[in-house]
Each structure stands twice: as structure tokens, then as C-alpha cells.
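Changelog-linked ticket: iron/sulfur cluster example.
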Amino acid sequence: MPDALRIYIETYGCQMNEYDSELVKSLLSGAGHSLAANEHDAEIILLNTCAIRENAHSKIYARLQQLKALKAKKSYRVSVGILGCMAQNLRDDLLDTHHEIDFIAGPDSYRELPDLIGRSRKTGEKGRALALSRTETYSGVDPIRSGGVNAWIAVMRGCDNMCSFCVVPYTRGRERSRDPKGVLAEVESLAEAGYKQVTLLGQNVNSYRIGPFGFAELVEAVAGVPGIERVRFTSPHPKDFPESLLEVIARHPNVCSHIHLPLQAGSNRVLDLMKRTYTIEEFEDLVAKMRSTIPGVAISTDVIVGFPTETDEEFEDTYRAMERVRFDFAFIFKYSERHGTYAAKKLPDDVAPEKKTERIVRLVDLQKRITGEINKTYVGSTVEVLVEEEPEKYPGHWSGRTDTFKNTIFPGEGCKIGEIVRVEIERSRGSALFGRAVGRAAEREKRASAAG
Ligand code: SAM
Ligand code: SF4
């Protein structure tokens, strides 16, 4: 048995990293280590990193500077490990240039962490575990979650899409799906533990497939687990949206009416260069089908501005597409060249930084206006909110999300985190709705009877 050490893990980036950190906690606890409450109390500090844009890297470099100082100050030995996409992407460069790092491990190598840590402590070896796997899904590892109403659950890992701007296929490897029996067993035990909502995760979640059992079948099976009030999923790709999936969302009151549908760009030439495999017309047809199949569905998106060679007119295509589609909200990014991608190898990063800024500012302004207009249409209606927390900013209030993912804030006594409350919306401000509680809801029954 290795020495038991106190471990602290800090997570950057996407929800998949949040989930992976929960897996890492489980693997390390299983190896006899314990979890430290903060970095000051830890002997091992792990940073679970992201590589999706350059600013994700910059954050980690800044954090490493702080950890270097912390290591030097401590009277006991502190080791620093880098996990996740940045470790996988930069590999030896990271160890060669940042001597405060003791070991690195990529997203498919977390089972090796206890060994890496043991060797690093015993011999000082700067270990690396970076093999990408075609099969690793961490089945059998029971994540240590931090509580709350939502549980993340990765149902597939990796991505085969090779969008030309994206580093994910290089840092997380090929697509592989988890056995549905294992997923369902995990969801059942989450319901027993009191979780009300599960969010199914995958880099390309709707390409989930085990033989004839696809994503629509999986969502339907998860929705049938007693006690699960809400099912969400992220991130889907527009190419994998069969009608059967939309029907499952429409049919099951506890599958949330919110779809995150990354657009990326509104110009067909740019979409083609991005290797997104759909045209803007096909994307908009899919949105129309979603809206007719799932009345009231909220749709959000991701957009990149300043992709290599994007002209002013092509940016206007994106602007106009966003005006037409009217997303509920959007994450808008400036293009950031990523090492190893097709775009980095073949396309010049030739849109000037000022131009990228100008474009992002215009899209953010447009989206703020549209979000505000959509949210105003909620005023006067009664929505069902899954209570998540008592927000610090609004003492005496509760906050949670509607089925359509709108952050909703309301005052009240006697609410409980995890219950569904009916809230009459009185006003909207920015991306939030404000209202008053008008009762408790049995969301599932009500929506089921509404659906006939
Ligand atoms: N799998 C999802 C999809 O198909 O769109 C997206 C996952 S990615 C982690 C999240 C978002 O980051 C992408 O949708 C894209 O908008 C953005 N992104 C990815 N690579 C980027 C890059 N090189 N520069 C700027 N934004 C990027
Ligand atoms: Fe990246 Fe494209 Fe895969 Fe999304 S679908 S993770 S953007 S390669």
C-alpha cells in the first residue's frame, strides 16, 4: 500500500473535465489517498486542464507560477500534476519548460495516476501517462460527486468529427460509448442518492451508439428511471439529430426542452472549411424541425468569429443567421489556433485581432438583445423551477433553472434545494427571470397530462 497522501484537485474547462475530476477523486481514494479541502492543506495538487483555446493555456501558466511559490514555501513536500487536455496536447513541452510540474496524465490515463504519484514521490521521476485508448470509458469507476441537484454522467468519450479548428480529437482520442447497462445502473443509484437531474455528457454526445442502441434509446431509458425529474445532455452535433431523438424529447416530460446546438458559423464556405458537414440551410431546417416537434424548446449555440479567411461578408452571414434563428443564448468565441489541428497546419490565422474583437462585440450585443426579447415573453407565465441554491447576490431568495434552462430567481421561505417550484414570472433582466413562488409542482405528471 503506498503512503496515503492528501490530494487537492482543481478543474478547468468543460463539464466533461468536471466529471473526469470526480473519476480521479474516486480512483485516488480507492488507492488509499484522501481529499484535501484546499491547496494549502494538500501534498498533491492536480490541475485538470483544458486546451480548447489559448486563454485556457494562459490560465494554467499563471496558476503554475502561484503553485511554484507555494511549493517553495511549504515545510513539507508538495507535488503538482497536470491532467487533462493540456497535458495530452503539450506533452513533454510542458514538463521541459515548467519544472514545478512533477507528472502529467492525459484524459485516458487516469487509472495510472496512483502509480505515477507513487513513483514521483519515491524516485522523483517526472512521469507521464499519455496513451489514448479506443476502449477506456472508466466503467466500474464510481465518481465522487460533490452533491447538488445535478449529476454529470459521461456516456461516451472522444470525438471522430475532426472539425478543422478543434483540438479535442487529438487530446481525447476516438469516439467510444459506454455500455448502457452501466449507464442505467449509475443513473438508478444517482436517483436513490437523491439527485433530481442527470446531464448526459459526451464531446459528441448524440453519436452515442452500442450496436442498435443509439442516443435516442439511451435518453428514453434514462428518462424512465424513477426519481429522475430532469434529463439534459450536452454537447450534441447537428449531424446526429434523427427525428426519433426529437420525438423522445417531445414525448418525455422529464427530458428537458433545451437543446444546445453548436452553429459555429453562418457562411457555407466557412462551415465547409471548418469541416462541420452541414450547410446553414440544413442547420436552419433542423432548428425548424426542433421547434415544430418540441413546442417551446429553447435552443442555444456556440459560434466562432474570425476563423481563418473569414471575410466581412461571411461574418455578416453569421450575424444574419443569428438574427434569423434567434437562439436563447450563445457562447461566442474568437478563433484561437490550436497546435496539431487541420486549420493550424493548412489555414492562415489571418483575421486581425482587432477585427475578431469587433466581430465578437457585435455578436454579443445582438445576442444580448435577442436573449432579452425572448426572456420578456416569459413575463406573466408560470414556469417550473428546479431549485438549485440560495444565490449569494440575492439574500432571502432561491434560484434554479426552468426546463428551458432559464436562470430564475424568486424570494420565499420554506423552499428546499432539489424541489420543483412553480414560479410566476414578473420581470426579466439580462439572462435571468424574476418572479414569485405560487406552489409546488409535480412536473412530470403535469406535463405528461398536457402531452395527452
Ligand atoms: N462538440 C461540440 C461541437 O460539436 O460543437 C463542441 C465542443 S468544444 C469543447 C466547445 C466549443 O469551443 C466549440 O463548439 C467551439 O465553438 C469552441 N472552440 C473549439 N475550438 C476552438 C478554437 N480553436 N477557437 C475558438 N473556439 C473554439
Ligand atoms: Fe471538436 Fe467538432 Fe468534435 Fe465538437 S464535434 S469536439 S467541435 S471536433
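Closing comment: Example verified and attached. The longest helix spans residues 353-376. DSSP finds 15 helices and 21 strands in the chain.
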